[in-house]
Write the structure tokens for this entry.
Amino acid sequence: MPGERLAVRGTSEVGRFPGAAPPTRVELTIHKDGEKKLEEGGCRRWFKKMCPCCCKRQSNTHDVTDKVEFVKPPAPTPTPEPAKLTVENGEAKEMEEMKLSVCSVDLLSSKTDQNRKEHHTELFQGDDMIIRRGQTFQIEMELNRPFSADNDKLYLDLKTGPLPLVSKGTHVIIPLVDHLEDERWEAKIVEQNGNKIKLSVNSPASAVIGLYGLTVTTSTLKGVAANTYNSDKNIVMLFNPWCEEDAVFLDDEEERKEYVLNDIGRIYYGTEKQIGARTWNFGQFHEGVLEACMFILEKSDMPPSGRGDAVNVVRVLSAMINAQDDFGVLVGNWSGDYSDGVSPSAWSSSVEILRKYHSSNGTPVSYGQCWVFSGITTTVLRCLGIPARSVTNFQSAHDTDVSLTTDVYLDEDMEPIDYLNSDSVWNFHVWNDCWMARQDLPPGHGGWQAVDSTPQETSQGTFRCGPASHNAIRSGQVYLKHDTPFVFAEVNSDKIFWQRNPDAGFTQIHCEKKAVGHHISTKAVGSDERADITHLYKYQEGSEEERIAVETASRFGSKPDTYSTALAEDVLVEVKMEGEGPRMGADAKLSIVVKNLSSQPRRTTLHSQVAVMYYTGVLKGTIRKEQIPVELLPNEEKTFDWVLPYQQYQNQLVDQAALMLTLSGRVNETQQVVANQTTFRLRTPDLNITPLGDAIVGKEMAAKITFTNPLPRMLKGVVIRVEGLGLQKGHEVIVGDVGDHSTVTLTEHFVPTQHGPRKLVACLDCKQLTQVHGVADIVVLEN
């Protein structure tokens, strides 16, 4: 309302434009339909810049094995003065002049230097030395006198972790050579000008990734004591998808740009018939994110010696992104109560979460659900150099007993037996694909691998999943590691209906073969379009190859004898919806279509039950039950209108506004069982974002954000979160209460700090309405 106060939480993006440090200005108005708009009084305040992530506190882990230390290498220990020489003064002076020492080392690590450009790391903020393994890099040194190849010796030491060992690959001694060879740590002098030399240093494609300290040791061939020089800058080594010898090599430049370098993406949600998309800021190059990723590796207690193996790194990260059993990054919460944290649907970026986790020395951030876990995983993997993408599976099964089927148990009256139905089908589930070779598997199983950081089931005692080969999943080779049975069941398990017998046993009465794994989606390469990658996870539904894969997988499950002779089916039931489906605040309308494919009449009674459902497939409670009598003439098709009034669901909904309609019945004439489960969501409105003014680096511009409450009730405690990489830092705008059918208008003033295509993202969060968000594409010009 016009008299309400506006509060803003967060910090403005001061950014990387020299001299530009204006605060974010926000203007807000809320008005009812037909009511004259009144401008809300704007408030201006300076936001404190967050402390740089260069002050790293040590982890509280008790690991005593190799671990990357987040401190700069210690300052060089002063070399004790040598004992007075007992030779003549002339000889002592000659030996002193002969000693070789390093005066300074330049790692050529600025964003514009050769190293950062050649290693595709120039997008990282700051001037740290960030390089990729399997590729040469350059170092310049200034010595106290000209280097003589005949009389002088020089070598480099790289060390990572508190207990660096040559045998573990965590202490690397790099000699000078005349010719560089691949797959070796070697250095060569490529330029010499007076006291200055330039080295070209080569690293193997299997090198351990992480944080290294650099020491240069010099001596002469005549036995004078060696001198050491410790660089005050660390070297960060990453995976290299541009290097053919690296396990993560990806042979397509456009895909490398998308899956490694793109810091903004799309994550899909909803239902298979109502696919929604939201923009996500991965922000892998944002200030503080690389430090946070290194901190996660340290906190995982994985020895640095294991960090050269991409499979091992991905598996560890899938456990560390969730906080279920190892104090990882994010706490999962599906309860609907987020009062002591942030609602999962309010996040639109990985940056704030990762920086908060790092700055708190590893205190898990609250809260997340599958798309947030996936967004963070994409950020961390891309940051470390592993090609990755977020993937959404619609109608995603959760197999709890390794049967590789999704089991639905019914009683004698065809009613679901809730306490037995532990398997579930999520409306959607978001995980990740990452690209790598799999030398630990038979040939042909490299390429895309599924990895899931959402804590669902344990794997070897820890909540993690993957990496599982796409090829193994598609062919039903569930005996190949890691966690292939679980992913296979998510995308290609059959839904088996069981009915309780009088003797308390169960009989299989129906098998739905196309129930799960629909429209598996990811953002397309080079565009914001949705790419359907279902074919990478499974053969075409109903094909001989797909059936063979299902039967092959089932033989390795807990119910290898599940499949029985198919029942005759001449009556079909399906549920249809018009357009994009029901909208929040209105009656939900669907159509039930029953078809008789036989030349004889058919009669049945459909038992209808609609329940509120978490997107994970867990039912909160039934809203309404009814019975629908059906009589069909030969080859007849009938359509029944199904309506759920707003008043019946308005106080029942949970996150994602999801509902499940279950239909079941038995055909009188043939005893055929017909069954159908359809999930749908109530669509929410978008936040409309309109850029105002020219977008130029260093000059203030604005964007207007509008939202209309679709509900005939007041929204309580509305908060809008706004963020734009290269535009402004993420912050919260506390809007307060918004009346029924009222419109909120919010004007954001900010100063762009990076040129090129940018995205301004906004999310609305309140208890009564979730998954409300919007995005605006803004092309920022150079000043």
Remarks:
- The two ends are 39 Å apart (CA to CA).
- Residues 616 and 639 are 30 Å apart (CA to CA).
- Confidence is low (pLDDT under 50) at residues 1-21, 36-88.
- The longest helix spans residues 370-384.
